[in-house]
Amino acid sequence: MRYLMVDRILEWEAGRGIKGVKNVAMSEDVLEFHFPGNPIMPGVLLLEAMVQLAGWIEAASTDFQRWFLLQRIPRCHFYGFALPGDQVEFEIKALESPDASSKKFEGIGTVNGKKKIVAEFEGESVLLEDLESATEQRRLFEILTRS
Questions:
Q1: What is the rounded distance in angstroms from the CA atom of residue 103 to the CA atom of residue 92?
Q2: Which of 71, 66, 141 is nearest to 105 (CA)?
Q3: In DSSP terms, which residues pair with 115 in a beta bridge?
Q4: Using CA atoms, how far apart are residues 71 and 20, in angstroms rounded to an integer?
Q5: I want to staple 67 with a disulfide (CB 3.0 to 4.6 A). Which of 109, 128, 146, 147 is the partner?
Q6: Which CATH architecture has domain 8-145?
Q7: Active site residue 77
Q8: What is the C-alpha separation between 97 and 43, in angstroms, rounded?
């Protein structure tokens, strides 16, 4: 099973950055156990949403030929909780990379303008077809961007 952690892509610019949102819903399975009686969106899933957005910008920037795979997280800080009913807004920016196959990004996630997560992460650009159907990913991107 694959979890799509981004509910909508608001804007993107090829090779530069992307903005998207994650709506935290009480009905999400993970909130039943994290934590019973006190549901909190796990911080690692906020980070996953950021990494998925990096994947989307890599795919859209390469005409759905490539995808971003996480390898390293040099910096990640959490500043509070994302709770049911919150809409987490993410902004991901591409950073300079030493070569075309490696990628670096920095991102921030906020709820009502308040920081919840800030991270810098690195990985590699891989062939999308080795992971997923490029046609299906393009279709999902069109749904997420409302294009």
A1: 12
A2: 71
A3: 110
A4: 22
A5: 128
A6: Roll (3.10)
A7: no
A8: 26
| Catalytic residue (one of 34, 93, 104, 138) | 34
C-alpha span between 115 and 85 (Å, rounded):
16
pLDDT one-digit tens code per residue, 50-81: 999 999 999 999 999 999 999 999 999 999 99
63: left (phi over 0), alpha (psi -120 to 50) or beta: left
Higher pLDDT, 98 or 9: 9
In what helix (H) or strand (E) does residue 121 lie, and over which residues does it extend?
A: strand 114-127
> What pLDDT shows up at residue 1?
46
pTM: 0.96
Structural domain boundaries in the chain: 8-145
DSSP, collapsed to helix, strand or coil, labels residue 126 as strand
* Average pLDDT for 93-103: 90
Which tokens in the block code for residue 104? 């670096």
Print burial letters for 71-108: b (CB count within 10 Å at least 16), e (below 16): eeeeebebeebbeeebebbbbbbbeeeeeeeebbbbbb
Instruction: Verify cis geometry, omega within 30 degrees of 0, for the bond prior to 64.
Output: no
